[in-house]
């Protein structure tokens, strides 16, 4: 992917997502998945999950890391540069603006209601995407995958285990699994 | 020199904030309130509120907010760059190795075990967001704090998204507008 039109599309899509994505890194990751996997078909589903895992494994904001990894995958260093700029530009402009007129905005009831309602909208989108992805894992009918998904959910949601430890545990499990495969081949 | 100090402080934040979101708050607070006294504690609380009502990661928002306050627009740019530089280097390296070696069978096995976990972690964030939307916060779940209008908007939004396959951002804005409309509609009755 190197065409000027596609790079422009990459920039505008990322800019748009970044400007309207309230509520944390996973929300923008979910929207990127909807945009780049479901709509534009630039990345396939499994690959997207790999990219999210990479974004989570590195330090820094997940939204920025997600943008970097997607940009890099689609168009190398130029792609990364484009998606990073597109991701940080909207918050940069908005915060610069708000730092000037914060007190007026804070007490405005319509803005408060709008934001609260948009949070429900965020929930709609993320539930929709999670249901789709969860269904994919279950439909593959691989027992280990389903077990990993359930245990990881319990650890992350109920026990607030840091994502880093979950990722490290999965990597270890993957290495063990691989070692078993090799032994079977010998 | 203030620009260098801003750059280095936010470089530290970018480099040591694992897990994202609220996990990074203590680190940001130590760096900008305790160590450098760039913001007072109440200004820091304002910053968190602003971050909640605007798009963008909290680390980036803090970099812009603190940078502007301490050293103007150039300060904001320097702080933001410091904040994202570690990500750019580490993530692009990981992406490079991923694209190069993903065909290896060991890497295949590792990725295979990682994928369901990634789905689970996104689901975990999703449940948190859903409960916060319905009950006001994730920790105060009871029948009395259940917001019926939110559930109505949720179902409406879900149907719109499923049926018309429209842009997710449009659904979010629509839900926001619905909430404003419901509030004023209820007042009329």
Could you characterize the architecture of this molecule?
The complex is a heterodimer of chains A (186) and B (189). Chain A is mainly α and 186 residues long. Chain A has 7 helices and no strands. The longest helix of chain A is centred in the middle third of the chain and has 45 residues. The mean pLDDT of chain A is 88. Helix content of chain B is 80%, strand content 0%. The radius of gyration of chain B is 21 Å and the shape is globular. The mean pLDDT of chain B is 88. The chains are: A mainly alpha (186), B mainly alpha (189). At the A-B interface, helix 1, helix 2, helix 3, helix 4 and helix 5 of A face helix 1, helix 3, helix 4, helix 5 and helix 6 of B.
Nutshell version of this structure?
In chain A, 85% of the residues lie in helices and 0% in strands.
Itemize the secondary structure elements and their pairings.
The complex is a heterodimer of chains A (186) and B (189).
Chain A: H1 4-20, H2 25-39, H3 45-57, H4 62-106, H5 109-139, H6 143-157, H7 163-185
Helix pairs in contact in A: 1-2, 1-4, 2-4, 2-5, 3-4
Chain B: H1 2-16, H2 25-35, H3 41-53, H4 58-101, H5 105-135, H6 148-164, H7 168-188
């Amino acid at each position: 992917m190197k065409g000027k039109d596609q790079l422009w599309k990459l920039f505008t899509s990322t800019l748009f997502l970044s400007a309207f994505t309230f509520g944390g890194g996973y929300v923008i990751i979910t929207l990127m998945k909807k945009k780049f996997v479901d709509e534009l078909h630039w990345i396939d589903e499994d690959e997207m999950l790999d990219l999210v895992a990479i974004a989570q494994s590195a330090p820094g904001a997940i939204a920025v890391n997600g943008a970097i990894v997607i940009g890099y995958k689609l168009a190398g260093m130029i792609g990364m540069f484009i998606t990073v700029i597109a991701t940080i530009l909207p918050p940069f402009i908005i915060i610069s603006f708000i730092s000037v007129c914060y007190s007026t905005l804070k007490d405005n009831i319509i803005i408060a209601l709008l934001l609260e309602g948009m949070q429900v909208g965020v929930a709609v989108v993320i539930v929709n995407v999670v249901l789709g992805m969860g269904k994919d894992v279950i439909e593959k009918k691989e027992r280990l995958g389903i077990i990993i998904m359930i245990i990881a959910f319990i650890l992350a949601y109920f026990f607030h285990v840091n994502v880093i430890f979950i990722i490290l545990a999965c990597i270890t499990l993957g290495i063990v699994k691989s070692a078993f495969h090799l032994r079977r081949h010998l | 020199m203030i620009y260098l100090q801003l750059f280095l402080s936010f470089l530290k934040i970018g480099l040591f904030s694992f897990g994202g979101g609220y996990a990074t708050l203590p680190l940001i607070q130590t760096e900008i309130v305790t160590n450098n006294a760039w913001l007072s504690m109440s200004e820091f609380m304002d910053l968190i509120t602003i971050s909640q009502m605007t798009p963008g990661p909290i680390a980036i928002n803090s970099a812009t907010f603190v940078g502007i306050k301490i050293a103007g627009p150039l300060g904001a740019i320097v702080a933001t760059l410091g904040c994202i530089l570690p990500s750019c280097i580490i993530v692009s390296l990981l992406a490079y190795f991923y694209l190069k070696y993903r065909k290896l069978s060991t890497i295949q096995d590792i990725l295979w075990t990682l994928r369901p976990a990634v789905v689970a972690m996104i689901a975990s964030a999703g449940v948190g967001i859903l409960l916060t939307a319905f009950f006001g916060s994730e920790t105060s779940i009871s029948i009395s704090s259940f917001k019926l209008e939110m559930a109505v908007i949720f179902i409406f939004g879900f149907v719109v998204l499923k049926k018309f396959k429209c842009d997710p951002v449009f659904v979010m804005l629509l839900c926001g507008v619905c909430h404003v409309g419901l509030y004023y509609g209820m007042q009329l009755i």
